[in-house]
Structure formats: structure tokens, C-alpha cells
Amino acid sequence: METSKKGTVATVDESHLRLIMGLKLRQLRVDKGMSLAELADVTGISISYLNEIEKGKKLPKPDKISVLANALEVSYDWLVSMKINKKMAPVAEILQSKMMKEVLLDVFGIDKSQLLDLLARVPVKLNAFLNTVIEISRNYGMRVENFYFSALRSYQEMHENYFPEIEESVDDFYKIHHLEANVPLQWERLRDILTNAYHCTVEEDGLSNQPELRQLRSVYLPGKNPRLLLNVNLNRTQKAFVLAREIGFQFLNLPERPYTSSWVEFDSFEQVLNNFKASYFACALMLHREALIQRLSGLIGATSFNPNDWIKLLEDFNVSPEMLTHRITNLLPRYFGIQELFFLRFSQQNGTEDFELTKEMHLAGLHNPHANMMHEHYCRRWISINILKNLSMQLKKGLYNNPLCYAQRSRYFGNEKEYLIISFAKPSLEGTGINHSISIGLLLTSQLKKKVQFWNDPAIPIRMVGETCQRCPAIDCAERVAEPVVLMREQRLNVMKTALDALSGR
């Protein structure tokens, strides 16, 4: 940042400078034991204007900055610089950090002036808290995407993962292009719409000349003559989703967006949010709510669980398991009154024992299972992991033909909650060797048992499960792959606490 007495601020976000200057003025005034009235008397600047400066709402002109600098016994250059003392450093870091600013201030709606007010009232405690947040993010290697995707999940959960305005946009799109809800959309139809309505050229084998990009599904090249480059290994269903998502970006007019699928990088939370909106549009386009609600009513009203009926849903709508389960999480809360649910996607390199939870969402509270960022081993009794093991076995023996679909009732050690879980598994993009399992879990409540008739189908296995091997009390578990070190540490601490209580006579 460059400033001078004669000039105004250049090359720096003025809002940042206002806030930093406000922080400095307030801290200098407080350190000198001056009230706003006393500073106003010394400088000839009104109390209300000083208050606006300290709240970061006003940036004074150079002559007033000089007066303030003299009154507070600091240099003009220091007052207009972005330098700040150690006491205020955490707040300044948040104000200048793109990641923290977008997540803490923009996404969650915390007003910057409120942050400054908090700093004035409880500077030590607030700075300690902000220091803690920053330190945790660094020590645990949290990247910007960890914050962005966590913020996105919160956004979805706040809206019960249902967005009427996007649903209405899909209805409008159906009318404009004369589509029928009960007729599955094929990728060729979507390609024609994208070409004719948005003048975008679709290249089915657009990435083969770039081996570095072979794991991407698509790349969008904007411009006067936009192009959508597809991975040649996409199947018909994957092509349809990529095209439907691109139509979503265009129809919803979302210019701030990523240009690749999967992610390579993103510059803002708005890109993450707009990608979600376009993906939501794509799922709603491929699985129109009226048609899917009718089919779901029949499935959950059945007295037995038939995996073939669920697989047929994929075929009839020409969608993937992930698209179907995502769409189900949109509709169950709104149209079936089933709010307590979760969605999980596990990824596995084919033939290995490494299982990574790569996507999750929880409605009406955090449910089990959920992500663990401590590099622990997820319980091998989870259906989400067992179905991947079976998929790997089928692929190894050359027996795989269609996505797998299993159901399980999971009861947790030391927890009264029980979940009915439906899980799908299939290979990801051809040539990557990665498999995915997609699961939707429903908390078994008295209300759910009235709505989902097959919940007690005797063919659905019931298993006791844990969270991770490191925390699981099932000592005789045949599936265990790691010792319960976290659990044992907690037990040792409890024994010590009991001994200390006895020693002190409590």
C-alpha cells in the first residue's frame, strides 16, 4: 500500500484501510485514557465522525489524519499503513485474509463493525479466540476448501437442502424447452439445448490431447465461442450430468464459477456456492420432483426392501447413485417430513484398504457416522465401507455389471440412536481406479417407522457399529484394523479423575 500526506490511498482495498485505521485509533485513544469527547476537543473533529472512523465506516481526509496523528502522538505514515501492533494482529489477519474474511465475515454475516465493537469491549478474550481459530487451522492443515465446503454444508442445512427458487427455474426450463417430467433426459438432448440456446460447442473427446487433465470430467472455455471439453471416458449418465450442470450455470446466470469438473482451484466462496446451485439445478433437471416423488412414495411404502427397485430408479431416470441420493435429500424433508438424515460419499482406490470420506451432509443435527479429521480408521462395519469392499471383489473377478445397492440398520456402541442406511457403490471415472459409495441414512424414529414401511424388513441386516477403530469399545471386533488408542487414553484419564476425587474426598 502506498500513501502520502498529499495523496489518497492507492492499490489497497479501502474497506481494509478504514477498518485497520479504526482499530488503531480506538486502541491509541483507549491506551491514552481518552474519551471520544476528549479526542474531539483536542482535534476539532466531531464525536459522531470520530465514532464513524473508529467503526471503520469512514476514511478521513489527509488533513484530518494529520490532526489525529498529532493528537495521538504517532506518525502520519504509521496511521495510514496496514501495520498494526501485536495486540490487534489476529483481527487484522482476519480482515486481510481472503479465506477468513469470506467465511467468517461474508458467509456467516458477521458485520465488520460488530467485530470492532467486540474488540473494544473484550480485546484480550476476542484476540485469544481468533488466535486459537487461526492456530488450529494452521496446525491441522486446514485449507481454504475445508472452510468453504463446511460453510456450504451449513448453508444447505439451514435451508433443509431445498431451494424453491431453483426448483421454479427448473419448471421454467421445462416449459421453455417442452420437456416432460416422466421422460428421462438423454445427454444428446442436453447437448442440443446447450449448443442451440447458448451457442456452446460440446467436444466429446476434448481432453485426450492433455494427459495431465485425464482425471477431470470436463473443462469449460468461455469466450465469444464457448467450448465444453469432455473426458472421452465419461459414460452416458456422466455426460448428461456435466451438460445439465453447464446448462444450470447458463440458465441461472452464474458468471462467478469454476471452469473445471472436478475442482482444480477456486477463488471465492461465491464460486463454491454457484457450483452447488448449478449442480442442484442439474439434479432437479434430471430428476424432476413430481416424477421422483411419485416413485419414492411407492418405494418407501413397500413392506420389503428390494435393491433392484432402487437400481431401476437409476436406469429409468438415467442418473448416477450420487445424483439420486442428493435429490432424495432435497425431497424427503419437504415432501415426506423426514428431516433427520445424512448423506455420505466414500472414495476408495480399487483394491486398497484406504477409505476416505470425501463428501457429507447432515440435516437436523450432526449424525453418525461423520467425518473425522484425525486420520483415524472409520469403522469397517459401516455399510458404506463394506459395499466398497464387495465392489472391489466383483471388479477383481470380472463380475461387476451394475451399481450395487445394499441396506443396513446401524446401531452405535454407547448410543441409543439407530439408522436405516441405503448405500450404492460403483466405479468412478473409467481409468482412474477409484470407486465411490454413496449412502443416505435415516434416523429411526417412531415417525420414520410409520413412513418407511420396510424399515423392519428381516432381510435388512442389523449391526452394532462404532465411529473409528481408535475409539471403538468392541474388543472382539473381527473387522478392527487399529487399536482403540483414543478410547484407552480416555479410560485412563477417567481412572485418574476417579482416583483424584477419592483422594480429595469428593
Radius of gyration, Cα only, in angstroms? Answer: 28 Å
Major beta sheet summary: 6 strands, mixed
The strands making up the biggest β-sheet line up spatially as: 6-5-9-8-7-10
Order of SSEs: HHHHHHHHHHHHEEEHEHHHHEEHEEEHEH
Please tally the β strands and state the result.
10
What would you call the shape? globular
Domain module count: 3
How is this structure best described in words?
The protein is an alpha+beta fold and 506 residues long. It has helices at residues 14-31, 36-43, 47-54, 62-72, 76-80, 89-96, 98-107, 112-121, 123-139, 144-158, 164-176, 187-198, 236-251, 269-286, 289-300, 307-317, 321-336, 383-397, 446-451, 485-503, and strands spanning 201-203, 218-221, 227-230, 260-261, 341-349, 355-363, 404-412, 418-427, 434-443, 462-465. The strands form two sheets. Strands 6-5-9-8-7-10 form a six-stranded mixed sheet, with helices on both faces. The chain is globular, with a radius of gyration of 28 Å. The termini are far apart.
Fold topology:
Elements: H1 14-31, H2 36-43, H3 47-54, H4 62-72, H5 76-80, H6 89-96, H7 98-107, H8 112-121, H9 123-139, H10 144-158, H11 164-176, H12 187-198, E1 201-203, E2 218-221, E3 227-230, H13 236-251, E4 260-261, H14 269-286, H15 289-300, H16 307-317, H17 321-336, E5 341-349, E6 355-363, H18 383-397, E7 404-412, E8 418-427, E9 434-443, H19 446-451, E10 462-465, H20 485-503
Parallel strand pairs: 1-3, 7-10
Antiparallel strand pairs: 2-3, 2-4, 5-6, 5-9, 7-8, 8-9
Features of the shown structure:
506 residues, alpha+beta, six-stranded mixed sheet, four-stranded mixed sheet, 20 helices, 10 strands, globular, disordered N terminus
